[in-house]
Amino acid sequence: MLCIKGGKLVTPAGINERDLWIDGEKIVSGEGRGGRIEVYDASGCLVFPGFIDAHTHLEMDNGVTVTADDFPSGSAAALAGGTTCILDFATQDRGGALRDALDRWFRLAEGRSYCDFAFHIAVTDWNPSTKGELADIVRRGVTSFKVYMAYDNLRLTDEQMLELLKATRELGCITGVHCELGDEVNRRVREELSAGHMDVKYHPLSRPNEVEGRAVRRLMELARESRSPVWVVHLSTREGLAEIRAAREKGVAVLVETCPQYLTLTEEVYIKPDFEAAKYVCSPPIRSREDKSELWKAIKGGEVDIISTDHCSYNFAGQKELGRTDFSKIPNGLPGVEHRPALIWTYGVCRGKITPVRMAALLSENPARAFGIYPRKGSLEPGSDADIVIWDPQFRGTLTAVKQLQKVDYSPWEGFALEGRARAVFLRGELCAENGRIIKGPCGRYVPRRATWRKH
Ligand SMILES: [Zn+2]
């Protein structure tokens, strides 16, 4: 038995100071069967349910280069920062089966992950045999899918998307969508390049707000027509938000995700000199101050459900540099899986934008519910996995890539002040990380999920 004493538990009902009892891998209601009792002193700290990152890309090959973080480094970084479970995207090869993608991701993660893990499947090739595989995939505990509206090597047509939404709805699954209109992006990129605009600053200009807004509008129409729940991944704009509001009023079931980069950075990053701006190339791009503050307002108002990272790391040296003379060749993606809790704590909770209770909902309970692992994950109630973060609000430090466990040569938040961090992280009852360092593992296990989106 383990007893965490003196901490303030962050629960949906509020913050209350009480002991938290753990027996083996589970949280229990009290001392129970007795025996030897170990005590962990959490005085002065908050006690959160382990954070869940529902959007990571580890060991992903984009066709040109492979992400800098593999499962060991990405999951270790996650755990050290307080994230005890990640949901990574197993991506189908065009012409390949979903089961092959899932098998490959199992091989990547099993025995190598420091935190618990589950998978979504990104469907890049929709055909009758893909459709025929869905039920099997759900039986293997994968109950959410993703499609891209942009990227020629990944995207589906609207018609394929509609069919997929109808099929996944029948199975009680939710589908996430990358909302940027691919044709519009391609045209704008072509126009910039043919005008001789090769610099990084043209990346955001080739993917303006309305490209996301119109894509969200289209998705809302498809969701309405298919009566399928949808998940807007990495929402970045006011325009997208307005479309979601309108659709919700019409009864569309839509789950909204945003990411720390859209909440803490602004488009000025793209005018940094010496190709530094390439470090911030992601899609959708970092937006304006106004978008950032609208997203925070939407979070306060309960319109955003989850904050994930879209962790997709590429080194500056050798990878981001692939686009030195052509912005369209810069691999898209940012690292962040290690720092999401500390960033949202510092720039959300400490700045008075959200409460710790809301932070726990956005980073843990809501993703657990949305993706079929609640209350096993996302809760401090008896019966839940003992995934626990002892959060030290007294910590003061500076985020720097030099100290990170992420296996990438920079951080988009280099030099940012941090006003709290995970002092201790328990994974299913075992103390696995302390003060940003791993002390045990890899102990991560697969978390099969239930299909929880009943038809409506
Ligand atoms: Zn992504």
Walk me through what this model shows.
- The protein is an alpha/beta fold and 456 residues long.
- It has two domains: 2-47 and 382-438, Urease, subunit C, domain 1 (Roll); 50-370, Metal-dependent hydrolases (TIM Barrel), CATH 3.20.20.140.
- The chain has twelve helices and 21 strands.
- A hairpin with a 2-residue loop joins strand 2 and strand 3 (14-17).
- Helix 7 runs parallel beside helix 8 (238-249).
- Zinc ion binds at residues 55, 57, 310, 312.
Distance between the termini: 44 Å
Radius of gyration, rounded?
Answer: 21 Å
Return the CATH topology of the largest domain: TIM Barrel
Hey, roughly how much beta strand do the residues contain?
A: 15-25%
Report mean pLDDT, rounded to a whole number: 97
Tally the helices: 12
Key words describing this protein structure:
binds zinc ion, eight-stranded parallel sheet, TIM Barrel, 2 domains, 456 residues, seven-stranded mixed sheet, alpha/beta
Secondary-structure topology with pairs:
Blueprint: E1 2-5, E2 8-11, E3 14-17, E4 20-23, E5 26-28, E6 38-41, E7 46-49, E8 51-56, H1 71-81, E9 83-91, H2 98-109, E10 116-122, H3 128-139, E11 144-148, H4 158-170, E12 174-178, H5 182-194, H6 202-205, H7 209-226, E13 230-232, H8 238-249, E14 254-258, H9 260-264, H10 289-300, E15 306-307, H11 340-349, H12 356-370, E16 388-392, E17 397-398, E18 417-418, E19 421-427, E20 430-434, E21 437-438
Parallel strand pairs: 1-6, 2-7, 8-9, 9-10, 10-11, 11-12, 12-13, 13-14, 14-15
Antiparallel strand pairs: 1-4, 2-3, 4-5, 7-16, 16-19, 17-18, 19-20, 20-21
Zinc ion binds next to loops.
